[in-house]
């Protein structure tokens, strides 16, 4: 069993539905244990990504399989939602980044852990701080500590509150 966190975002179509479908897919396919969802935040695209504002969240929990299986499940969810594997700064229906997986430290062309963008992205740190209060494996700091030092000054707005453990957001239809 390994604790993990996934950063999820969408800036095309029904962004909230895309996040919910991505989470549902992961929970149905993956060997997930207990899970927790952060609040959902609206943020502008940064780092040259095209399109409108993103809805972002973090899914954290326990996984009963190897990191490669979780990474594969994330890619399958993105593809099923219509996102290309190689984003190349394009808008996306669903983007899922593996932020950390237990204490794994990986550096290969397809996966780096912990994710190298965690420290510089408010759209990752704020939702992660909703549900992860310990030090991030491999970074020796909590999300809250990193958020205080983060150079990303982009706007971030809470859209949906953090649900209870094992629950989804309460979304008006």
Describe, in short, the structure shown.
This protein has 173 residues and is an alpha+beta fold.
Question: Could you explain how this protein is built, in words?
Answer:
The chain has 173 residues and is an alpha+beta fold. It has a single domain (2-160), classed as Alpha-Beta Plaits. It contains four helices and eight strands, in the order E-H-E-E-E-H-E-E-E-H-H-E. The protein has helices at residues 15-29, 67-80, 122-131, 143-149, and strands spanning 2-10, 32-37, 40-43, 54-63, 95-101, 106-107, 112-113, 157-160. Strands 1, 2, 3, 4, 5 and 8 form a six-stranded antiparallel sheet that branches. A two-stranded antiparallel sheet has the order 6-7. Helix 1 runs antiparallel to helix 2 (67-80) and helix 3 (122-131) runs antiparallel to helix 4 (143-149). The protein is globular, with a radius of gyration of 15 Å. The model has no long low-confidence stretch (mean pLDDT 90).
Number of strands: 8
Computed over alpha carbons, the radius of gyration is 15 Å
CATH superfamily: 7,8-Dihydro-6-hydroxymethylpterin-pyrophosphokinase HPPK
Order of helices and strands: EHEEEHEEEHHE
For this structure, the CATH topology is Alpha-Beta Plaits
Instruction: Kindly estimate the percentage of residues that lie in beta strands according to DSSP.
Output: 25-35%
Category from helices, strands and their pairing: alpha+beta
Give the % helix: 25-40%
Measured between the Cα atoms of the first and last residue, the distance is 36 Å
In total, how many domains does the architecture comprise?
A: 1
Provide the CATH architecture.
2-Layer Sandwich
Q: Can you tell me the overall shape?
A: globular
CATH C-level name: Alpha Beta
User: pLDDT average, as an integer?
Assistant: 90
Summarize the biggest pleated sheet: 6 strands, antiparallel
Count of helical regions: 4
Regions with pLDDT < 50 over 5+ consecutive residues?
A: none
């Amino acid at each position: 069993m390994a604790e993990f966190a996934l950063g999820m975002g969408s800036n095309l179509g029904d962004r909230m539905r895309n996040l919910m479908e991505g989470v549902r897919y992961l929970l149905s396919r993956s060997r997930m244990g207990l899970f927790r969802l952060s609040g959902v935040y609206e943020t502008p695209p940064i780092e040259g990504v095209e399109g409108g504002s993103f809805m972002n969240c973090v899914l954290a929990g326990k996984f009963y399989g190897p990191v490669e299986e979780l990474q594969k499940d994330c890619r399958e969810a993105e593809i099923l939602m219509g996102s290309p594997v190689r984003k190349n700064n394009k808008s996306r229906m669903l983007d899922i980044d593996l932020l950390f997986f237990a204490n794994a430290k990986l550096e290969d062309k397809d996966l780096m852990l912990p994710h190298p963008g965690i420290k510089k992205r408010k759209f990752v740190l704020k939702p992660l701080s909703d549900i992860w209060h310990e030090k991030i494996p491999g970074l020796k700091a909590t999300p809250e500590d990193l958020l205080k030092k983060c150079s990303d000054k982009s706007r971030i707005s809470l859209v949906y509150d953090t649900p209870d453990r094992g629950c989804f957001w309460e979304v008006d239809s």
